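Hi,

Apologies if this is the wrong queue. I'm a grad student, and the batch job for Secondary thiamine-phosphate synthase enzyme from Saccharophagus degradans produced an output file that my downstream script rejects. I'm not sure whether the problem is my script or the file. Here is the sequence I used:
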Amino acid sequence: MWLQKEIRLSAKARGFHLVTAEVVRELPELADFNVGLAHILIKHTSAALTLNENADPTVRDDFGRFFNRLVPENEPYYVHTDEGPDDMPAHLKSSILGSTLSLPITHGRFNLGIWQGIYLCEHRNYGGERTLLVTLQGE
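Support response: The file is valid. Your script probably expects a header line. Output copied below for reference.
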């Protein structure tokens, strides 16, 4: 069985946000899969997805501080600056973290580790809603 669906995540402030529950809420069809894979693509170039710590929110804060130091704004060598000082760094951060996740499905649920959750990595100050394309395959 195959299913492909676009879902929208609510607008988030710049930062790293745990969105596992929001994604699952938008995918009631997940319950129809006993075993399979979920492929999730974020359809934006200035935000990313990653899988990491789901319990302690300070981890997400540390992610933000790290990536803002790793890829700072207003570097003199940036040429792509028309959309503001957060835009080019957002593209770089998105490429570093990635735009897709592949997650196993077992008994109608994402089969994640006990401390794992899906992060929306919002790199723009005002990114707005984000669209995910989710492809489920399995039986």
